[in-house]
Design goal:
The chain is mainly beta. It has no helices and eleven strands. It starts with a strand and ends with a strand.
Length: 128
């Protein structure tokens, strides 16, 4: 059984930075394509960033490109989301998710329905 635990959220002023972590237990993250999603009040959950099984391909939503960076550390079995130049519209609960893939699968995945396991979420609030 795989478990995902997010941390690193909090309250930050506009223009500030945060680093979110997603610690994975139960399976090595080298087996997974991974992603960060967010959900603001009254809105649907949306993709923020994704990374493929090998870590060599990444995807970013247009609204965060150039400000957020997804990465992972296989030694720590942890995925990260470095968030810079934060804006009030980045306020949301942020979730990490994983999808087990085959060795030959180099894809990243951007749909909520494409992921099998989710964390409980961490709140990010950006004040203006």
């Amino acid at each position: 059984q795989v478990t995902l635990v997010e941390s690193g959220g909090g309250l930050v002023q506009a223009g500030g930075s945060l680093r979110l972590s997603c610690a994975v237990s139960g399976r090595p993250i080298s087996r997974y394509a991974m992603g960060w999603f967010r959900q603001a009040p009254g809105k649907e959950r949306e993709i923020v960033a994704a990374i493929n099984r090998s870590g060599g391909r990444t995807y970013y939503a247009a609204s965060v490109k150039g400000r957020l960076t997804i990465s992972r550390d296989t030694a720590k079995n942890t995925m990260y989301l470095q968030m810079n130049s934060l804006k009030p519209e980045d306020t949301a609960v942020y979730y990490c998710a994983v999808r087990e893939t085959y060795d030959s699968d180099y894809s990243y995945y951007a749909g909520t329905g494409e992921y099998e396991h989710w964390g409980q979420g961490t709140q990010v609030t950006v004040s203006s």
